[in-house]
Design a protein that fits this description.
Structural class of chain B: alpha/beta
Mean pLDDT of chain A: 89
Number of strands of chain B: 13
CATH architecture of chain A: Orthogonal Bundle
Oligomer: heterodimer
Strand order of the largest sheet of chain B: 2-1-3-12-6
Number of strands of chain A: 2
Largest sheet of chain A: 2 strands, antiparallel
Number of helices of chain B: 19
CATH architecture of the largest domain in chain B: 3-Layer(aba) Sandwich
Mean pLDDT of chain B: 92
Strand order of the largest sheet of chain A: 1-2
Radius of gyration of chain A: 23 Å
Low-confidence stretches of chain B: 18-27
Shape of chain B: globular
Largest sheet of chain B: 5 strands, mixed
Number of domains of chain A: 1
Largest interface: A-B, 47 and 56 residues
CATH superfamily of chain A: MetI-like
CATH superfamily of the largest domain in chain B: Periplasmic binding protein-like II
CATH class of the largest domain in chain B: Alpha Beta
Distance between the termini of chain A: 35 Å
Low-confidence stretches of chain A: none
């Protein structure tokens, strides 16, 4: 009976499986094949160059700049997101309106990143932006107008990404915390534990698996970061190179049409390298965060 | 039960496949011409071209025109369709970008017959009314590949209603006069220049000085020099030095480093800066923000002592990708659209210039028209560097030029880094 039900499932799975193979697996394999070639699109020679694109990456200062930016986002923005997320968790745990506040925190995730990029530019515009107007109103005009300047814009982007992503990861952390029975906190309080000790000895160990999964999700998301940064920093048709992440580097190298670089093979090699970096980071993260699951 | 499951799966698969068949396979009907355009819905040029397409359909009931108003990123989509063998029948975009996207790699169809054909409703051919120097911008292997319908140039824009305040009653002709004016305005506390932010906007200064000192082709030749030796020519020290000297005056509006397009041109349109170095789209893009009574005038980029003269010709037009199905319909539409009466919308509604020598200019662009008709040699925008050497332009030149415009590099340091970075770039890249 069970075997026949399994056989019954196959025709239902097959269409989705075929679509997945066609639109996810095949393109990934094809991207790897493309990365081994020099190609600029239709009408140009498709020349096998082996690992030539990957060798080129090692001496490309733009690649190293974009990789550095992506890793900074993963590390700096990631740490900020989780620290703020845990702080919110500690505060919201016993608040009355926690469900409403949780929904408000999650709101930036609902809005498309491109729209957020455009809104943030308007908020930070040097002449009419609300932030600069407020700074001028309180006598801090010397700090007004700098947020989008070349030396500062990347830090502004990181701060904005913390704001955008904190809600999502706080929601995950809160969901993990909700599973912890209140008895443990009661016992901790009775034994004289303060808030930080409750967090360190109860909350964190008991939701470690949730934090581990959330970290992996962030690493993948951080390395792939593209749409908000692109919309925020776009100048007409050009993205200043100092804010390029690996995703933007792939786009500007292979696909962006206003400046017709169109190095599809090389762009593909950057994409493959992104996958390798994600795999290495996730592996290291899982090793560092590995511990025995606590049953309760 | 098992048979029912198989039957359901099969039926679902067939249904999914059937919805994927192109409509043309479903039987004969009017010809559908697919046109992908660079304009966004609502833009003035979109309104003009949309009307032309609708009138064309009425005049040709067997041709249905299906337009995708795809915006400035349309060429990325066109390039994908070239791979699938199903491109649109007609594309319009900036000529330089189409050149880089598919014309220069042999993926466009020749348009010699269109260039030499009579415009619909007229006795003149396109070659008779559009200057050959324009048509030849994309002339390769003995064939034309572009039919332009709009021409753009660039120069220094100002408000003649405030010419007295900005010292522009007699605009400067030479670079020395221009710098002297900038100094005078700075002394009065008036920002001489507005700058829409870094990147391709600020590159105007270096590019125009390169045209003036070296003439058309000099910048292009140096950009493609893999040895970097071209940058040793003393001319380049004059170019970078002139930019650096201008930047040292701090001539741009406050907070220009942190502004975002189009804030620079809006600052200028609101009378808070004297001049704007910009393309001839400046009036149409700023008219809603301009102070009441704004009178648009433009003067050409000043000459340098012992230098060369040229005028920038930047075209927007149509091309037909290879593999297009409705080629005859596309050619017919271009000849229909190039009619003087129909193209008048580019002047009246879009407030831009057409490439036809027998058509006028909107009042705001009369200075541009005069400049284009001056007889000076023609140069491509950025001397064609952005199209011919896009990787070098994007990863070597623009970042360094940004540093020059921000005042972080002297002219000498800029040139030295430009040469070294070019040499390093061309070790692993071809363009």
């Amino acid at each position: 009976m069970i075997r026949s039900r399994r056989r019954l499932a196959l025709p239902f799975i097959l269409p989705a499986l075929l679509l997945y193979l066609a639109f996810s697996v095949y393109p990934a394999i094809d991207a790897l094949w493309l990365a081994l070639h020099s190609w600029q699109g239709a009408g140009t020679p498709f020349t096998y160059i082996g690992l030539g694109n990957f060798t080129k990456l090692t001496s490309d200062p733009v690649f190293w700049l974009s990789t550095r930016n992506s890793l900074l986002i993963v590390l700096v923005v990631g740490v900020a997101i989780f620290v703020i997320g845990f702080l919110f968790t500690a505060v919201l745990r016993t608040m009355r309106l926690r469900k409403t506040l949780r929904a408000i925190l999650f709101l930036p995730n609902v809005v498309p990143a491109v729209a957020l990029g455009i809104v943030w530019v308007m908020i930070l515009a040097p002449d009419f932006g609300i932030v600069n107007a407020a700074l001028r109103a309180i006598g801090l005009g010397r700090f007004a107008g700098i947020w989008l300047s070349p030396g500062v814009i990347f830090y502004t982007i990181m701060a904005a990404m913390v704001w955008i992503n904190t809600g999502f990861y706080t929601t995950i952390i809160l969901a993990g915390q909700d599973r912890i029975p209140a008895d443990y906190y009661d016992s901790a309080q009775v034994e004289g534990a303060d808030k930080f000790q409750q967090f360190w000895y109860v909350t964190l160990p008991m939701m470690w698996d949730v934090v581990s999964v959330a970290s992996v999700l962030w690493v993948i998301s951080g390395i792939k970061a593209f749409d908000f940064i692109y919309a925020f920093s776009l100048q007409g048709s050009f993205v200043p190179q100092n804010v390029w992440t690996m995703g933007i580097n792939v786009y500007m190298t292979a696909l962006a049409s206003r400046i017709p670089v169109y190095q599809l093979g090389y762009g593909s090699s950057i994409g493959i390298t992104m996958v390798v970096i994600v795999a290495v980071l996730v592996f290291l993260l899982r090793r560092v965060m590995r511990r025995e699951a606590i049953e309760y | 039960m098992k048979r029912l499951a198989w039957a359901l799966s099969l039926g679902l698969s067939v249904l999914l496949m059937a919805t994927g068949f192109p409509s043309s396979a479903r039987g004969a009907g009017p010809v559908t011409l697919t046109w992908w355009s660079m304009w966004n819905p609502g833009e003035p040029q979109m309104q003009v071209l949309d009307k032309i397409a609708k009138d064309f359909q009425q005049a040709n009931p067997n041709i249905k025109v299906n337009i995708l108003w795809g915006g400035r990123g349309i060429l990325a989509k066109v390039r994908q369709t070239l791979l699938t063998g199903n491109p649109p029948d007609l594309v319009d975009k900036d000529a330089d970008e189409m050149g880089g996207a598919f014309i220069s790699n042999g993926q466009a169809l020749p348009l010699d017959d269109v260039v030499n054909a009579k415009i619909e409703g007229e006795d003149k051919t396109i070659s008779a009314v559009v200057p050959n120097s324009y048509l030849k911008q994309f002339y390769m292997n003995g064939h034309y590949y572009l039919i332009p319908y709009e021409v753009i140039s660039s120069g220094f824009w100002y408000n003649s209603a405030q010419a007295g305040k900005f010292g522009l009653t007699n605009p400067p002709n030479t670079w020395d006069q221009f710098v002297a004016l900038a100094k005078t305005l700075k002394g009065k506390g008036i920002p001489p220049l507005a700058l829409d932010p870094l990147g391709i906007n600020s590159a105007y200064y270096f590019y125009w000085l390169a045209e003036r000192f070296g003439g058309p082709g000099a910048f292009n030749k140096a950009a493609g020099d893999k040895t970097g030796a071209a940058w040793n020519d003393p001319m380049w020290a004059k170019v970078s030095g002139a930019v650096a000297d201008l930047v040292a005056l701090k001539p741009f509006e406050p907070n220009y480093e942190g502004s975002k397009y189009p804030s620079g041109q809006n600052v200028w349109a609101q009378g808070n800066a004297a001049m704007l170095l910009m393309g001839s789209w400046a009036p149409s893009e700023t008219e809603k923000m301009a102070v009441p009574g704004f009178q648009y005038r433009m003067f050409p980029f000043p000459q340098v002592s012992g230098g060369k003269n040229s005028v920038e010709v930047y075209l927007i037009g149509w091309s037909i990708p290879k593999g297009a199905k409705q080629v005859d319909a596309a050619k017919k539409l271009m000849l229909y659209a190039m009619n003087k009466t129909r193209l008048q919308g580019i002047i009246d509604v879009a407030k831009n210039l057409t490439p036809r020598t027998d058509m006028s200019a909107p009042p705001e662009l009369k200075d541009v028209k005069a400049m284009l008709e001056s007889g000076a040699p023609v140069n491509r925008i950025y001397d064609g560097v952005q199209t011919d050497y896009p990787g070098w332009w994007q990863t070597v030149f623009i970042p360094l030029d940004d540093q020059l415009i921000l005042g972080k590099l002297t002219g000498t340091a800029f040139l030295s880094q430009l040469k070294q970075n070019s040499i390093n770039y061309y070790k692993t890249n071809s363009r």
